[in-house]
Structures are given as C-alpha cells and as structure tokens.
Amino acid sequence: MAIYMLGRNTFGDPADAGKLMTIEEAHQLLEDWVPNERLRLHMKQVAAVMKAWALEREGADATTALKWELAGLLHDADWEKHPDDHCRIIIEELERRHIDPEVIHCIASHGPRYFGVEPENTMDKMIYMFDELSGFIHAAALIRPTRYEGMDVKGIQKKLKTLNFAAQVNRDDITDALSRIDTPLEEIIQFIIDHQKDVV
Ligand SMILES: [Fe+2]
C-alpha cells in the first residue's frame, strides 16, 4: 500500500458532533462509490465487527454503535475510484455532509503509517486493529471448502506466520495495532470470526 499522508490531524467541525447519516444512506454511498463487490463486502464486514464490539465490549448505546458502524462501513469508500487520494476523498465528502468529527477521525486513523494520523480513542484503535485482520481472516475463509464453518483461531494464527499467505496483509500493522490495545490476539481473531461470518 502506498503512502497518502493526510497532512492534518483535525477533521470535521466540532459543531457537527452527534450528526450522523443513516445506515441506509451509508450503504447507498457504497453502492455509488464502490462497484467492486468484494471491497464492499470487506467494508460491511469491518462495519459488523465494529458495531458488535461497541455494543458487546464497550457497552455503547445505539447512537455510539452507529458511529462505529459508519466508520467501518465507509473507511475504504474512496479506495476503488481514488487510489491516489485514498482516505482524503471520503473524509472531504463526510466533512461536506457535516458528519460527526469522531467518525471522520476514526476513518482517518485506520492506517497511521499511511495517512499519518494516530488512533486516539478506542473506536480509532479498534478500526485499525480490525481492518487488516478482518481481510486476512476472510482470505483464509475463501480457501477453505467450508469457509467460516469450523474455522479456528489457531489456524489463523498459524497463517499469520506464513508470510506468503495473503502476502499483501502487513503483519507489522497487525502487531502495531495489537500493541495499542489490551485484548489478546486470540480474542480479537475469535471476535472477528464470530461477527463477520454471516455478513453478505
Ligand atoms: Fe479496509
């Protein structure tokens, strides 16, 4: 992945705190911006895992969970059509739509090495944690005849050490993301498997 430094650290307008779009509007944006079905599925999977983590692990209310879900659903929305301006285009779109700055900051911090924005709150740290690993686990599911059924954490951990499997997934990012949170890798992998397996 190339480097697309955003060159700034603040996003959105504090006056827009609490302003969200509906999940239907976010899905429509994906339909309009992302023809690639596999990329759309990736974002839906990250969204499902983010929402579930907010509700089950952070005790979030429905509005907060929607923030986590929207960040997951839109984090790569500009990747297909604007590969050279990835992240900047969706951020500017969400700023134009007056979306809550926390959602925008979360999207901006999903790859600190690439966009130059550090994850600050838990939502930021978890999207960084889930993004690469979610894609990795899905790649592992695709080569199994039974897909997610019977998939186990140990098998995923072993594949992570097999560097020529899903070689585009940067293991250093996973290690770095993990170092910023208190949850063990095993638990994160299991959580992702459980919450993205039925996303279509
Ligand atoms: Fe992603």
From TrEMBL:
Keyword Hydrolase annotated: yes
Family matches, as SUPFAM superfamilies: HD-domain/PDEase-like (SSF109604)
Entry keywords, A to Z: Hydrolase
UniProt-recorded Gene Ontology molecular function terms: hydrolase activity
Top-level taxon in the UniProt lineage: Bacteria
Protein name in the entry: Hydrolase
